[in-house]
Specification:
6-stranded mixed beta sheet, single chain, Mannitol-specific EII, Chain A, alpha/beta, 6 strands, about 160 residues, PTS_EIIA_type-2_dom, about 45% helix
Length: about 160
């Protein structure tokens, strides 16, 4: 897994979004600003196309939209904490506060890509199962707090893989 998969620059602590499409659009725009994509509109199209297949709502106030895209040069994970407590992903029963947008280049080795995605998904699943982590993310006042919690879990998953 890349050390630069997620950085402080790809963490948004107060995303002002009115809908899922608005959130994804703004996150893709942010990835353009931090030079993770040269074509945010096409990246947005790839992510929304994938999202139309099946919702990426993960429960516990979390969604993990993801796509393989020709519009990123390296794998990237963007975390956003949505500003509104009333934001929903696909309807009233899918309250979301945290969004993990994951995208990887279409040119990458597909089996390696799927394995890397699996580590990200399992790490996020582990983290969102812990009330103290959700509380930490809810009240974090700087990006480093989020980054450290994610990197700690990614490292633990990677070490587990190596020792098993």
């Amino acid at each position: 897994m890349h050390n630069t998969l997620i950085t402080k620059e790809t963490i948004l602590l107060n995303l002002d979004a009115k809908s899922k499409a608005d959130a994804l659009h703004k996150m893709c725009g942010h990835l353009f600003l931090v030079k993770k994509t040269q074509n945010p509109s096409s990246l947005f199209a790839d992510i929304t196309a994938r999202e139309s297949v099946v919702s990426t709502f993960a429960g516990t106030k979390t969604a993990i939209p993801h796509a393989i895209s020709a519009h990123v040069d390296e794998p990237v994970l963007c975390f956003a904490r949505v500003q509104s407590d009333e934001f929903t992903w696909d309807g009233n029963d899918e309250d979301v506060r945290f969004i993990f947008l994951l995208s990887a280049p279409a040119k990458d080795d597909l089996s390696e890509l799927r394995q890397s995605q699996s580590y990200v998904f399992s790490s996020v699943a582990e983290l969102i199962s812990r009330p103290e982590t959700l509380e930490l993310w809810e009240h974090a006042d700087n990006e480093s707090v989020i980054l450290e919690s994610l990197n700690h879990e990614f490292k633990a998953k990677l070490n587990n893989r190596i020792t098993n």
